[in-house]
Design a protein that fits this description.
Blueprint lengths: L5 H11 L5 H11 L3 H24 L3 H13 L31 E4 L24 E4 L5 E4 L4 E5 L5 E6 L2 E4 L10 E6 L5 E4 L5 E4 L3 E6 L8 E6 L1 E5 L8 E4 L3 E13 L6 E15 L10 E2 L4 E6 L5 E5 L2 H4 L6 E8 H12 L2 E4 L2 H4 L2 E7 L3 H12 L3 E4 L2 E4 L1
Parallel strand pairs: 6-8, 11-13, 20-23
Antiparallel strand pairs: 1-12, 2-3, 2-7, 4-5, 5-6, 7-10, 8-9, 9-12, 10-11, 13-14, 14-15, 15-16, 15-17, 17-18, 19-21, 22-23
Helix pairs in contact: 1-2, 3-4
């Protein structure tokens, strides 16, 4: 396997550890974009890192040790063990950026699918997005651009042509007439940051922390409008009866008929859950073509659960307040298993939680939080439920 030059390997390590400076990141990006071989090595490296991180869900392994093993495999397969300590800051989830939109067709999508390749079209988005501290835009040729929320400039494609503009934390794409080729960009948001994008058809997308969206630079006349999402997003979909809007979540598609709904698809969950607030949506297996008979249409106030194993759908009444609390910047637990609470806190605050109190793992709790820090959330559990904990760097240990 090709190896990184020593100084580039140092930059990559800083990149993974969330300690890279803007100058260093620019240098790393320049190296990545220098050749297809460099880009492939970088992608392979992040892929192996993701694999090491994903073990924690299945086996609750020490992720620092797993990361060290990944480094050994890539850099020194027969050498001594390289010791690494990954340090991350505890961040607030920060939902305040979301505003209540006033448009008629609003789509709320909540997806976290980890690491997937969607229909061989979705470029691999590593789970390490939550470890990074840079907003990036990947162009159709694989080049990676770093975006900051203080820029006001034109948005260029790989040929140097203007396709839109950036103003602060928002990208706006222009509609290009007579374009017949689908060209994709991928916007990736790390944990602790948010970004807004307006697609070429006028659809607005608010991306939450730890999310990635692959989308056409320009939608093609006569074809469906299809995007691919990992993470969490709030969609305000432009109505167009001739061009259905499809959101792919890996194993399931959601077809938009003018609606507002919430979609949750975490990789470790057995079910993909769609909660309809208003309007209408149809859910169906991503491997099947859409038909009225192959899809399930939801009524407002109901939830569809798509079982990943059996590929079947069940429908029941939904708790809308709890399912859509994140839109208002809240986290609500109602008779929720503590093990599930841990998963949600890890996602929202970019921390690792080790529960050594197995007795409470299967207990259910009720609580709600409004933009509190992780320290405040933990202290609330300690005060109300007598749950002891300690914080060591970005790791939380429940006693």
């Amino acid at each position: 396997m090709q190896e990184f030059p020593p100084h580039i390997f140092k930059l990559v390590t800083s990149y993974i550890n969330n300690s890279i400076s803007n100058r260093e990141f620019d240098e790393l990006t320049k190296w990545i974009n220098h050749s297809p071989e460099n880009r492939q090595l970088f992608k392979d490296y992040l892929y192996l890192y993701k694999k090491s991180r994903s073990l924690k869900f299945a086996e609750s392994l020490d992720t620092d040790k797993a990361w060290s093993k990944t480094i050994e495999k890539l850099q020194t397969p027969n050498a001594l063990k390289i010791e690494q300590e990954t340090k991350h800051k505890i961040t607030k989830s920060g939902f305040k950026f979301l505003q209540i939109l006033k448009y008629a067709s609003i789509l709320v999508v909540f997806i976290t699918t980890g690491f997937y390749v969607y229909n061989n079209n979705f470029s691999s988005q590593p789970d390490t997005v939550k470890e990074l501290n840079q907003i990036t835009l990947q162009l159709e040729n694989g080049d990676i651009q770093v975006l900051t929320d203080v820029k006001d400039e034109h948005l260029l494609n790989s040929k140097g042509e203007i396709v839109g503009e950036q103003k602060g934390n928002k990208l706006t794409y222009s509609k290009i007439k007579n374009q017949q080729e689908l060209i994709y960009n991928t916007l990736t948001i790390p944990y602790g940051k948010h970004f807004e994008i307006s697609l070429s058809d006028g659809t607005k997308v608010y991306l939450n922390a730890g999310s990635s969206l692959k989308y056409p630079v320009n939608f093609i006349n006569g074809s469906e409008r299809k995007v691919f999402l990992t993470g969490e997003a709030y969609f305000d979909v432009e109505k167009d009866a001739k061009h259905p809007f499809i959101v792919n979540s890996g194993e399931m598609n959601v077809r938009v008929l003018g609606t507002e709904f919430n979609l949750s698809s975490y990789p470790e969950d057995k079910n993909i859950k769609t909660v309809l607030v208003e309007g209408a949506v149809s859910v169906y297996n991503a491997e099947d073509a859409y038909t009225s008979s192959s899809s399930t249409k939801l009524s407002p106030g109901f939830k569809a659960s798509f079982n990943k194993g059996s590929k079947t759908v069940s429908v029941k009444k939904a708790d809308l307040d709890m399912e859509t609390a994140w839109v208002k910047g809240r986290i609500i637990f109602r008779k929720t298993l503590f093990s599930d609470i841990i998963k949600k806190l890890e996602r929202q605050y970019n921390v690792s939680i080790e529960n050594n109190n197995l007795e409470i793992g299967n207990q259910r709790f009720a609580a709600s939080f409004d933009n509190e820090t992780i320290e405040e959330v933990l202290e609330s559990f300690n005060t109300n439920f007598n749950i002891d904990y300690t914080i060591k760097e970005n790791k939380i240990i429940i006693h």
